[in-house]
Amino acid sequence: MERKWTEEVLGTDKPIIAMCHFMALPGDPGFDKAGGMEAVIKRAREEMLALQRGGVDAIMFSNEFSLPYLTDVRTETVAAMARVIGELKSELEIPFGVNVLWDPAKSLDLAVATGAKFVREIFTGVYASDFGLWNTNCGAVVRHQHEIGAEDVKLLFNIVPEAAKYIQRDDISQIAKSTVFNCKPDALCVSGLTAGAATDSQVLETVKNEVPDTIVFANTGVRINNVKEQLKIADGAVVGTTFKRDGKFENPVDEVRVKEFMDVVKEFRATL
Prior knowledge:
Helix content is about 40%, strand content about 15%.
């Protein structure tokens, strides 16, 4: 049987990609000007190391606290993210990806600059969202990927964007099928409504059944009490809020929670 790219790039079947959420960056409304970039780097280093020691398979760096998000991200955000990753990279021992919320071209730029193995983004669709009318241009982004030499960067397509809804399209199975046919994603990500909201297992199963030959990730709300159920369907999971202290989005990563979660994952993978 042909190996999945997740095994080759991330080192295992059913991988857990952990989110390392950067605090607000220069230009963001919540940026801590007194603490500056040093405070951002300090928090990111602590969380990255806690995730790594906790046993996750890969890490995805994102500007999660750059609220409210832009769909055309400014240069200062990408520059700040590149600096943080550059400062941490020598201590990173597992594969990593990046997500510049919500700008796929800038995510690819950051990936090339830092050596990231994958990006997760909204590549397709037109949405009514909390950020206004949200349009995409997958063809232009994929051409940009090739122009900047990012052909080997894996593209994780989030097809159920958080805080957004497809305009005039509701059938998730048809969205999955047409996205795979037209755009050839490396993986599809299925989300709940917001960060930390559980991915509906029925929706996840519908997507996987429609595109069985495509990698499908549970993208939000995977917890220690549902991870086995989710991984029976999905090819892996992206996990963020679950790893935070008390399971709250705004809190720092809790290494004990990470280890407990990964023990359950490893126990499940041993049965495969």
